[in-house]
Design brief:
With 325 residues, the protein is an alpha/beta fold. The protein has 12 helices and 12 strands. The strands form 2 sheets. A 7-stranded parallel sheet has the order 8-7-6-9-10-11-12, sandwiched between helices.
């Protein structure tokens, strides 16, 4: 019976996959390497919902064959070490794409219509908040996408449907591909920041994208613009964002991700009423949670059983001698 450690319980559909496969499942309720290590020492599989695993931990886990992520973000996994050890890192591409795009769209509307702030003021008896005229229409405005993969594409389609123009900055997508869809392409991210009314970030967190949106970039944005981040905490410099919110460089912001998760109740971001913060839930709809959990569980069990599962972020792991005996 293969032992699989899970940082936090998966959606029931994912748990059912593991149960059907006869796995010995241990849930640590912590994604910290030091907390998972005692159970990982003799485990063949690991699924991290929230948490991380480093090189030191992997080197101690001699039986570990596979790491699973119910999602596509792998910034908290030492992928280089996993590849070196022949450990595939299973991901769930596409399973939560629609959910994240819809969340970004909902955030765009909530910011543009000043909904959350007005709800809070209404509960205090401030009916006059309606006459501040901070809300505005999105029809005819421009959505600027920083990163235009599957999520960005769906968001762009939805934005077009409500009459928005779309501009794209993505060094990994050609101008021809973008323009063929009727959207604008910009080679310089700064042009997007200056031109767009809504900026939505859809890039992975890498050394190149860390703090990519800092003080200088926020100052380039229009004072009426909205910043949305449903990608990863760390792409936006949070200290700079706090300054932008306090000094009203931008209209508002909405983020589903922060650098330190779970966020502390005394986090500086909570001081401002022109930002909406959600708990990394964009991909946590019923449909998406089922999809990513099922995909991760199926992939982890397939690898444990010796199958070269294709949905991994590091296919080079299969070049390791352990896969070519």
């Amino acid at each position: 019976m293969a032992k699989v450690v899970i940082s936090h319980r998966l959606h029931d559909d994912g748990m059912a996959v593991l149960e059907k496969a006869g796995a010995d499942v241990v849930i640590t309720n912590s994604g910290k390497s030091q907390d998972m290590l005692p159970e990982l020492l003799d485990a063949e599989g690991l699924i991290i919902r929230i948490g991380s695993i480093d090189r030191e931990t992997m080197l101690k886990c001699k039986n570990l064959k596979v790491i699973g992520r119910p999602g596509v973000g792998v910034d908290d996994v030492d992928v280089e070490t996993a590849t070196e050890l022949g450990i595939p890192v299973v991901i769930a591409p596409g399973a939560n794409t629609r959910s994240v795009a819809e969340h970004a769209m909902a955030m765009m509307f909530a910011c543009a219509k000043d909904m959350v702030r007005c709800d809070k003021e209404m509960r205090k008896g401030n009916f006059g908040i309606r006459s501040e005229y901070k809300a505005y229409e999105l029809n005819g405005k421009t959505l600027g996408l920083i990163g235009c993969g599957h999520i960005g594409n769906i968001l762009a389609q939805m934005a077009t449907g409500i009459g928005m123009n779309v501009l794209v900055y993505d060094p990994f997508v050609s101008a021809e591909t973008v323009e063929a869809k009727g959207w604008g392409y910009r080679e310089d991210m700064h042009d997007i920041l200056k031109e767009a009314d809504v900026i939505s970030i859809h890039t992975p967190l890498t050394p190149q994208t860390r703090n990519m949106i800092g003080e200088a970039e926020l100052k380039m944005m229009k004072p009426t613009s909205i910043l949305i981040n449903c990608a990863r905490g760390g792409i936006v410099d949070e200290a700079a964002l706090c300054k932008a919110l306090e000094e009203n460089w931008i209209h508002s912001a909405a983020t589903d991700v922060v650098v330190h998760e779970p966020i502390s109740m005394d986090d500086p971001l909570f001081k401002y009423d022109n930002i909406i913060v959600t708990p990394h839930m964009a991909g946590q709809t019923k449909e998406a949670a089922s999809g990513v959990a099922t995909m991760a569980a199926e992939g982890v069990m397939a690898v444990i059983n010796g199958e070269k599962w294709p949905k991994v972020c590091n296919p080079k792991a299969y070049e390791h001698p352990r896969w070519n005996k």
